[in-house]
Design goal:
It comes from Dactylosporangium fulvum. The longest helix has 39 residues. The chain has one domain: MetI-like (MetI-like fold, Orthogonal Bundle). It contains ten helices and no strands. It is elongated. It is mostly helical and 218 residues long.
């Protein structure tokens, strides 16, 4: 293939990958923060100690983190089909990407929240702050640098996951590498795909590091 043919394919792959990763990142941020906050609140000594709930959440998160993504991708095919009506394409790929990333980010959120100074939380409680206010104005606010740094790591992982989604026709750069680079032995396509993925990851990491540094100085 010539570069004039590879260019449009790469551009389409970049758009599809950006769409998959972007949508999955939004859902992962929402789900991961929610689960991470619940893990902290329901733990022993938390603001809402519920050990059975905490144990169940911890089990679900651990199971989700232990499954290799390629296995998860296949295992939840019925769920994906029920949710979006298909198991191929970018929309279908968003489902396993989100399901695989939420447990990963939830643990990062939990760790970041646990690093918040307990004295600050105690002071907020002494001043009569509600649980919701403590979560929003103390825990999440104080943990912002760690949350952003962890989210950056998660998005980078999502880029890698999205490439694996190409194995089952998920679209994006991974699908391009499989169909042209591997199955048709087009080495130029494979090399170009790898370069674009590396640049993609580098840009995400640089942006995440920049935001985390600015938040840590506030």
């Amino acid at each position: 293939m010539t570069w004039s043919e590879i260019g449009p394919l790469l551009w389409t792959g970049v758009q599809e990958t950006a769409y998959m990763v972007g949508a999955a990142a939004v859902f992962t941020a929402l789900g991961g923060v929610l689960v991470g906050v619940l893990l902290v609140l329901t733990d022993r000594g938390g603001l809402l100690p519920l050990r059975p709930v905490n144990a169940l959440l911890g089990l679900v998160v651990n199971v989700g983190r232990s499954l290799p993504f390629i296995i998860l991708l296949v295992a939840i095919i019925p769920f994906t089909r029920a949710l979006v009506g298909t198991t191929i394409g970018t929309e279908a790929a968003i489902v396993p990407l989100t399901v695989g990333a939420i447990p990963f980010y939830a643990r990062i959120v939990e760790t970041a929240l646990r690093e918040v100074d307990r004295d600050v939380i105690a002071a907020a409680r002494a001043m009569g702050a509600s649980r919701t206010q403590i979560v929003r104005k103390v825990l999440l606010r104080e943990a912002r640098p760690g949350l952003v740094a962890g989210f950056t790591i998660t998005v980078v992982a999502l880029v890698g996951y999205s490439a694996m989604a190409g194995v089952v026709g998920g679209g994006g750069l991974g699908d391009l590498a499989i169909r042209y680079g591997y199955q048709r032995f087009e080495n130029e396509v494979m090399i170009a795909t790898v370069v674009v993925l590396v640049v993609f990851v580098q840009l995400v990491q640089m942006l995440g590091d920049l935001v985390a540094r600015r938040l840590s100085h506030k």
